[in-house]
Write a structure and sequence with these properties.
The chain is α/β, with parallel strands linked by helices. The chain has 10 helices and 10 strands. The chain is 43% helix and 19% strand. It binds 5'-O-[(R)-(carboxyoxy)(hydroxy)phosphoryl]adenosine (KG4) and zinc ion. The site of zinc ion has 5 residues, from helix 4.
Amino acid sequence: MRILGIETSCDETGVAIYDEKCGLIANQLYTQIALHADYGGVVPELASRDHIRKTLPLIQAALKQANLSKKDIDGIAYTCGPGLVGALLVGSTIARSLAYAWNVPAIGVHHMEGHLLAPMLEKNPPHFPFVALLVSGGHTQLVKVNRVGEYELLGESIDDAAGEAFDKTAKLLGLDYPGGAALSRLAEQGDPNRFYFPRPMTDRAGLDFSFSGLKTFASNTLTQVIKEENGLTSQSQADIACAFQQAVVDTLVIKCRRALKQTGLKRLIIAGGVSANKQLRQALSHLMSQLKGEVFYPQPQFCTDNGAMIAYTGFLRLKQGQHTSLEIEVRPRWTM
Ligand code: KG4
Ligand code: ZN
């Protein structure tokens, strides 16, 4: 079975082909970051228009990369939510139309389920059950994963997602959108002992998160520093980035420890854009070696949005005989 996967939920057009025997045989990605940079965030209408321009050429490129023709495709998976409604409609309309024309089944995939299963694309995939920390630009969730399709939400952010907090704080520090990765690089130059940011919601029981206060804390620290130093030196900018990142990472580690204790599990996976963060990976590796457990993450290119995770998730569902009707339906808000 060979499945074409299409991801268009936000500002990345991703197309990939997953083969039951050989694994991932094509992967194409086009990022719209440059298009939205001037606006400091994703402009939904521009995102939809760019997906229209890029999806079909990327499908052709993926088929060429795998040396296949349309006749070799047995099913099409596409992200049908959550995400930007217009962007989702582009991917689903193209996927549904091609599936109709090629006479193959199609399946709508939950974007976060795609992220959650991305570590399964690696050479040494985790066994079920495990705890998943999903940290992206739109979501922060802890999920108990019993098997494919059986997910228990343990906790989630009550306001900003971790990636969103990274991006907003990066913007305050004058970095381009999306500034998560740039903030993280800047933090490497920072003095970890200069500022201390709070670890939100760690002083009470439970597995929910709140990150919006950290952005406000960063903003207040920044105002104070600018006043005292008559401007912002690059060292102070790095010191704030460092304190912010440390607070997010510590908070995530504390909650992962709790989730593992609560579920009695020793396997943790992290996925979503923020799982590319080096400091978070190091801290969670340290936690899991203390707990004598294991941590799994996707390779960096599959942490952020991509078509491979959608092709793979769609493959698993189509293999189980599931598929969605011909109706073009998207679910901008959708709990997993
Ligand atoms: O999963 P993703 O590509 O898109 C969503 O589904 O939201 O995640 C994008 C998020 C952005 O907020 C981006 O700044 C963040 O992931 N991100 C990072 C890093 N790389 C990407 N945040 C912190 N450190 C990184 N290295
Ligand atoms: Zn995502």
